[in-house]
Each structure stands twice: as C-alpha cells, then as structure tokens.
Write a structure and sequence with these properties.
By secondary structure, this protein is mainly alpha-helical. It contains 14 helices and no strands.
Length: about 400
C-alpha cells in the first residue's frame, strides 16, 4: 500500500500588470507606519528626533520595497500568498504602533515585528523560486543579507539612545546594500506593475501630508489657519504634479522598453527601490513642517522644522533630478534650479513667519511647474498621448 504524496505548497506567478485590491489594502497599512514616523519626529522636533524618524522610515520603506518586488513575481490573490500577506500586515501594524517608543522600551518589540515582516517576505520568495534557479540564487543572497540585518537590529535594541540609532543605521545600510552585490539578473518583475506600486506609495505619503494639515490645527479656524491649510494643499498638489504628470510615466515607459533583464532590474533597483526613498522621506519631512506650521501660523518655525519643510521640498526635487538622470540620462535644470532656490531660502526660513515659509515653497514649486509646462510642452504631450493610447489599446 503506497503512501499518498504530500502536495507541495506552491505560489502562482503574476500574469498581469494591474495592481490588485489586496496590494492596495496592504499598502494602506503603511499609512499608519508613515504617520507614526511623522509623529515620532513631531514629539521631538530636534535634529536627533528627526534623524530617528527618518531612520525608522528607512527600515519600514525597505520592508515595503521587498513586497513590491515580491508581488511583481507572484500573484498575491492565489495560493498561500494572500494569507502570508495578512500576517505581514499584522506585523507591520504592530511595528507601526511601536514606532513612537522604538528608541525606548519597545525597541525589541519593534524589531521582532519587523523581523516577522521580512521573514514572511523571504518565505514567499523561497516558494516562488522553486522552479527558477536564477531567482533562487538571488533569493538565497537576499535571505543572507536580511538575516544579518535583522540580527544587527536585535543587537541594537539592547542598547539605548544614540547608540541604538547608530547600530540600527548600520543594519539599514547593510541591508540596503545587499542588492548591490546580488546578481540582478535573477530577479523577475512586471515593469508596469512595479512602477505603479511605487506611484501608489508616493500617493500614500502625500496623503500623510494632507493628514498633517488637520492634525496640526489645534485651535480656532481663523484666517491664518485657513491660509496655511490652503497653501499646504497647494504644496501637496505641486508635489503630486511633479511626480505624476510626467516623471512617473517616463520611468514606467523606460522600464518597459528594456529587454535585458539585468539592465532592467538595475534600473528598477536604482530608480524605484533607492531613489523613491528620498522622495517619500522628503514628503514626510514636509508633513512635519506642515504640522508645525498649522500649530504656529503667525510665528517663525524652529530651525529644525523650517529645515524639514523647506529642505524637504528641495530634497524631493533633487531626488527627481537624480531619477531623471538615471532614467533618461538628462539633467532636469528647472528642478535643480528650484531646489537651489529653496536651499538658498533655508537660512532665513526660521526667521520669518511659518506662513511665509510655506508660501515660498508653494511659489517655487508652481513657478517650476509653469516653466516646465512651457519649455517641455511638446515632449510632455507626446508622452501623455502615448500613455493614453497604450491604455486605450489594452
């Protein structure tokens, strides 16, 4: 009498480019994660507090990036993937709840929850790579770097204060450096899906900047508060335009045009996994500045929060400059000039009323958008029409 064969647990590979509702649901958990990073910085708006908030944001970002690559390989709605994603969502939620006290008595709890997120990701990649030797080789390398990174985080949770931040920074740098030494040709991705996922996480971050407007308002809704709120939305709309009007389309199009797997994966790694982090971090810094502005419209911001708001906008534009250089090999002079103007205003941003600072940010952003719309009208039209035609033909 023969023993029945035990069926192997399998995952279904992704077939289409559309982002699924489950992936959108998964990304919503990161709304809380980003909000908590802003809250961590707002509780201690010093250079140390802002640095710690950005460090935690970097850790959470790298965990999200892993799932963006994963769900560009496997179908999240089939096999065990859905259940594992639910587990990861719960772990992200716990880690997010720990963020305000991650440098206090909840450091180890944060790391354990974070470790569950990363381990779930690796486990699914192992299942997906059973019949793909190239992917399996890359996954083994990723598992090794992830394991070492988590071990360093655990060690860092046993020390306090700035020592913990230093050890966790080492862990983050080590973890993020892993893909630089792992053969990129082993990874698999669907270009349109991968680009769209990163666009959606930028939207999540922009949503946090809108939430910050409401969270920062602590008193009566007077003329100053209304003006600050309107200017805050103007800034958020400018940030949205700068990314989604052309940049997102150009990045997705270029990614889809490349046939060489290794070259395409390097571009995806550099432009999306790496360069989108300073974009998201810049939006979070702007949210911190916006939150502080709403609380003190008629007063100057502190040096740190003024830097967060004005410098954050400059960082966002500089990240776009780097993104365009990597994608198209050209320098976005308009965005570089706008970033330099904002950096030039930075030394006086903490000396003028907060309302003036946010008005300057809004003015520079929209002046840049106006110049770009005129100077690059033809190429913009061609790109957007091509994208419209592509979607119409699907």
């Amino acid at each position: 009498m023969t023993q029945a064969a035990v069926p192997r647990m399998r995952v279904v590979l992704r077939r289409g480019e559309l982002v699924s509702p489950l992936e959108l649901f998964f990304d919503l958990v990161f709304v809380l994660a980003i909000t908590q990073c802003t809250a961590l910085m707002a509780r201690n708006p010093t250079w140390t507090g802002i640095g710690r908030g950005l460090l935690v944001l970097g850790l959470l970002w790298w965990s999200w990036v892993g799932y963006a690559w994963l769900t560009s390989v496997v179908d999240p709605d089939e096999g065990p993937v859905r259940l594992v994603l639910f587990v990861a969502m719960a772990a992200v939620l716990v880690a997010s709840l720990c963020v305000p006290h991650a440098f206090g008595d909840l450091g180890l709890t944060f790391v354990v929850a974070y470790g569950v997120v990363r381990a779930s990701h690796i486990a699914l990649f192992v299942l997906a790579s059973r019949d793909d030797a190239g992917l399996r080789h890359s996954v083994v390398g990723l598992a090794a770097s992830t394991g070492v990174g988590i071990a360093i985080l655990v060690g860092g949770s046993q020390v306090g204060g700035n020592a913990r931040a230093a050890v966790w920074l080492v862990a983050l740098v080590f973890d993020m450096a892993g893909p630089l030494v792992i053969d990129p040709s082993g990874w698999r991705l669907v270009p349109g899906h991968f680009a769209e996922r990163h666009g959606l996480i930028v939207l999540v971050a922009l949503g946090e900047s809108v939430v910050a407007i409401g969270a920062g308002s602590q008193g009566a809704v007077d003329g100053g508060v209304i003006a600050a709120a309107v200017l805050g939305i103007v800034v958020a709309c400018g940030l949205w335009w700068a990314y989604f009007d052309v940049s997102a389309l150009a990045g997705a199009r270029r990614l889809a045009e490349i046939d060489d797997v290794g070259v395409r994966n390097r571009l995806a790694r550099d432009c999306f996994s790496y360069l989108h982090l300073p974009m998201v971090a810049a939006i979070v810094l702007g949210a911190l500045g916006m939150k502080s502005t709403m609380a003190r419209v008629g007063d100057p911001l502190g040096w740190e929060t003024a830097t967060a708001m004005v410098g954050g906008a400059a960082l966002y534009l500089l990240a776009h400059v780097a993104f365009k250089m990597r994608v198209l090999g050209t320098v976005s002079v308009d965005r570089l000039v706008a970033a330099l103007v904002l950096l030039g205003f930075l030394p006086v941003a903490h000396r003028v009323d907060a309302l003036v600072s946010i008005a300057v940010v809004a003015g520079v952003l929209w002046a840049m958008i106006g110049v770009e719309s005129v100077r690059h009208a033809e190429s913009r039209r061609e790109l957007r029409e091509a994208e419209h035609s592509r979607h119409s033909g699907e």
